[in-house]
């Protein structure tokens, strides 16, 4: 399928990779190492540190050297993920970026991923590459050359062939682990809603904003990312309060509840209930 829309940035576009970090220093270092060996090294590497000066030091001394953007964590302790992404984008745009590539700190790009995002970026498209979840690393850590053999792409998302772009994607499937868009498209969407703090909801909201702005969600082949292992809860009980709060915000903004799979799982555990009269999910009293 041909690339959607028109108005791709002039070649070569100035491309920025943006990542957020609060801990996960080894993950950050491996991501940075992968970028240094990529078929195309990004022109800018913007690392947004959330109350993490140690990460700033790691990012600044690696290659490609990072532009560090510190963001304060509020007294609540909830990570300001939406605000941090916006801060990273502002810095990248101020430095002249034409294309913004967002990578979760856990994600290691494949050798072709940055070049593929740069090639496919076009105004009016929100591009999502494939993400594969890695098993725990061996004793010596992951080897970049082996990552593509260790895990298959996530079964819940489309997996286009390397030379394909699938247009007309479902906004509810968007995730912020790995995505890219032109500077003009970012401005058209308006960035992430900063009312979201902590875990969950802000990426689904962003996809809805993109849809409202007439931006097409596209699944991009040839731009893989490999998600480094870390322990997780399923469902994420430790984030229950965040999910309820951010879910309620999403409901007020869009008239429906996100993350319903997790909410139903919490309900089966007796942790939440749906208040039919009010039309909201609530925590079950202890």
Structural class: alpha/beta
Radius of gyration, whole Å: 19 Å
Average pLDDT rating: 94
- Could you describe the largest sheet, including whether it forms a barrel? 9 strands, mixed
Strand percentage lies at 15-25%
Q: Give the proportion of residues in helices.
A: 25-40%
Task: Give a written overview of the molecule.
- The chain is of the alpha/beta class.
- 31% of the residues lie in helices and 22% in strands.
- It has nine helices and eleven strands.
- It has helices spanning 25-36, 53-61, 81-94, 113-120, 147-150, 183-189, 202-212, 240-254, 260-268; strands at residues 15-21, 44-50, 67-71, 99-103, 107-109, 125-133, 165-166, 178-182, 216-227, 272-275, 280-283.
- The strands form two sheets. Strands 1, 2, 3, 4, 5, 6, 7, 8 and 9 form a nine-stranded mixed beta sheet that branches. A two-stranded antiparallel ribbon has the order 10-11.
- Helix 2 links the parallel strand 2 (44-50) and strand 3.
- Helix 1 runs parallel beside helix 2 (53-61).
- The longest helix has 15 residues, at 240-254.
- The radius of gyration is 19 Å and the shape is globular.
- The protein starts with 14 loop residues before the first strand and ends with a strand.
- Residues 1-6 have low confidence and may be disordered.
């Amino acid at each position: 399928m041909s690339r959607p829309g028109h108005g791709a940035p002039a070649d070569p576009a100035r491309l920025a990779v943006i990542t957020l970090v609060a801990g996960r220093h080894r993950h950050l270092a491996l991501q940075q190492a992968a970028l240094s060996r990529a078929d195309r090294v990004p022109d800018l590497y913007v690392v947004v540190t959330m109350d993490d000066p140690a990460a700033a030091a790691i990012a600044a001394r690696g290659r490609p050297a990072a532009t560090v953007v510190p963001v304060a964590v509020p007294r609540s302790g909830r990570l300001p993920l939406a605000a941090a992404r916006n801060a990273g984008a502002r810095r990248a745009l101020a430095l002249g970026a034409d294309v913004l590539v967002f990578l979760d700190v856990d994600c290691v790009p494949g050798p072709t991923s940055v070049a593929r995002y740069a090639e496919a970026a076009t105004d009016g498209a929100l591009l999502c590459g494939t993400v594969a979840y890695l098993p725990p690393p061996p004793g010596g850590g992951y080897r970049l050359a082996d990552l593509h053999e260790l895990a298959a792409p996530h079964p819940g998302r489309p997996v286009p062939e390397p030379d394909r772009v699938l247009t007309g994607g479902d906004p509810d499937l968007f995730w912020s682990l790995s995505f890219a868009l032109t500077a003009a498209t970012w401005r058209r969407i308006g960035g992430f809603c900063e009312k979201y703090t902590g875990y969950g909801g802000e990426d689904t909201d962003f996809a809805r904003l993109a849809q409202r702005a007439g931006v097409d969600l596209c699944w991009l082949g040839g731009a893989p990312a490999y998600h480094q292992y870390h322990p997780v809860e399923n469902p994420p009980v430790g984030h229950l309060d965040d999910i309820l709060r951010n879910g309620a915000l999403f409901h007020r903004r869009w008239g429906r509840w996100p993350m319903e799979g997790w909410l139903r799982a919490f309900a089966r555990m007796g942790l939440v209930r749906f208040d039919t009269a009010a039309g909201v999910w609530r925590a079950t009293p202890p």
